Amino acid sequence: MRRATAPRPDAVVSQDADVFKGVTALSVTEISTDKDSGASSGLETLLPEGWPKPRGYANGMAGEGRIVLTGGQVGWTPDGVFSPDFIEQVRQTLENVVKVVEAAGGRAEHIGRLTWYVTDIEAYRNSLKDLGPAYRSVLGRHFPSMAVVQVLSLVEPEAKVEIEGTAIIPKG
């Protein structure tokens, strides 16, 4: 998830340009769909005017519906087993986030935000080539807004990554 080099405005982006003196946003309808059914996510990807389109994440997402907040999920299987491999832990962690969203009646494409906590940012950076296929195996080409933060450690000693998700399940 390479960050764009465009300067960031100090104000929150709004679709109501009068609110923030000249700060406007181009709101592009999210084109991500469920990788199996082809159903639309119901979310909009927000791209402030003049900013380059990010690759592998969104600057912001908007939607209406039931909000689902996951707790921090780690990369263990339902049996509580961790793989020693960083990429496999990420894949399992993403699956665990999606399972929580599914328990609320949602799907992967309803996820509007992911916050990643990694214990080794260099392992994350050095694995980007392998991370893409693992990510897409769970979320397809749906790229919500994301942040990646390095932390000293996680509660589970074997965990290398923990991910929190926020989903918006459309009404109806």
TrEMBL record:
Transmembrane segments: none annotated. InterPro entries: RutC-like_sf, YjgF/YER057c/UK114. It comes from the Bacteria. This is RidA family protein. The lineage of its organism: Bacteria, Pseudomonadati, Pseudomonadota, Alphaproteobacteria, Hyphomicrobiales.
